[in-house]
Specification:
Layout: E1 14-17, E2 22-27, H1 32-44, E3 48-55, E4 58-64, E5 68-74, E6 79-85, E7 104-107, E8 121-124, E9 130-133, H2 143-155, E10 161-166, H3 172-184, E11 190-191, E12 193-195, H4 210-224, E13 230-232, E14 239-242, E15 245-251, E16 270-275, E17 278-282, H5 288-297, E18 306-308, H6 319-325, E19 329-332, H7 336-343, H8 347-355, E20 358-361, E21 367-370, E22 379-380, H9 389-396, H10 402-416
Helix pairs in contact: 3-4, 6-8
Amino acid sequence: MIPDEIIPGTGYDGLYDCGDNTSMYVFEGTDLSFFDKICGNVTASGYSLLCESDIEGNISRTYRGDNLIHIYFTPSDKKTRLISDGFSDDLPAQAEKSGDTPPSFIQFEVDHSLIDCGMCYIAVCDDGSFILLDSPHWYSVNDDIRIIEFLKKLSGEEKPRIAGWLFSHAHEDHIGKFNSLLEFYRERADIEAVYFNFTSPEYENILYESNVVSGAEKFRSLLGEHREIKRIKPHTGMKFRIRNYTFTVLCTHEDIFPQNITDFNDSSTVYLCECEGTRIMLPGDASALSDRVLLDRYRETLACDIIQVSHHGHSGLSPEFYRRAGAKCALFPVTQIKFDEEYDRQESNRTAIDLAREYFIASNGTVRIPLPYSPGNIKLYPDETFEDFEGIFNLWSYEYPEEYKDRLYREFLGRRETE
């Protein structure tokens, strides 16, 4: 809880259970002078400033005392939010430069034999370690091992080093294989820190599915068994470094309160990643409510070179978001089948592609992008997995014309020869 001397005598206008022993106090109708007053109260209570940021007038400051306190002011809605975080460890210390490995950003081909969703992105750091974002669905049955083997091949190390593993939200197609990796293969990789900001299962104004609750509970339980891994709960406005990459948090579920999150995808944390002058936008599955937050607060900040298309290209962020992003490279964490189905009805997908110089669909093979990004300077890996159409039908009742399935298979055989 927040000490009484920090909160002004007027009190707060809203209180939100953020999950993981973290609470947010919301003050409405405020300005920068109010924000500064709150920060002064925090400092006077013995807290030390860790970091601060100013993103188009959205000001944030983070303090450490008995717990972590994060405060940010957003002029678009004139709100000051004070977050008391009793969960997060201190951010790991980072050297300015750790090595000479050329950095790159990778869209990993998850096993899409039985599932069209799921995603995993990998950033190669200058010391040969890695940063990951999300993990495949548990129906991508062998992807825990495939990820480890891929990292071993890239690094040449028997035990790959994961400097940070970031997560957008707690859907099973984003945390599933991390859970199994931690449960069964923990000794095969060194994981330094995990970054996630998941919602509280006790908060009643969020629409939960039972598998979301159980998957998130397992995620937290497994991390509890491995306290050697640092745990950080990112909040909006935070800017932190992992090796030679900088991450800025642009939106979390904390920004949606007091609205109800009726689409769990709007619990996604939206990250902006920067390395070697290249800006990479990573919105996870952010959807309509997150879109409103992002468009109200940011304009220039959304501009990027590479963009992960939200929610696998299924009704995620708006066309205006992609216009402001203006990315030259669009990454679709989805299968070719679902991409084809969505293309005609999703203006956002068409907008992202129209603005891009190139785009890549995850089911068609792993893509490695050297940084700084330059269009056309891409490494394509052989396509490793193909749809099990009978299994898909038995699981999801999806059926496709034989001619279409034959065409997809011929294209797959062609991609298998890529090296």
